Fold this sequence. Notes:
83% of the residues lie in helices and 0% in strands. It is mostly helical. It is globular.
Amino acid sequence: MEKRKLIIYWIFTALFTFGMASSGIMQLLRAKEIMEILTHLGYPTYLLTILGVWKILGVITVLVPRFTLAKEWAYAGFFFLMTGALFSHLAMGYTGKAIAGPVMQTIFIVMS
């Protein structure tokens, strides 16, 4: 049973960290699609740099062994980030594909 839990943990952790790292990189590179979404939601574009750096640092924290307190904070930050993104999208009337990313990432975070 312990091996099964470990496998499930690493599957969801891999999905979650890949999603966070890739979106963090896209935010740091100021990808056009990300810029459009952020401005449509009414957030300033400088927020992309802050979120991108936090996501990359959070992924590193989650993947590095030990540092349990820092990992807890990283997981909490990711959870708040993704639920905030979900509610921002819902408030603007987005549905379907637009909210799939935040919903799935939130599930991955909880399962990880």
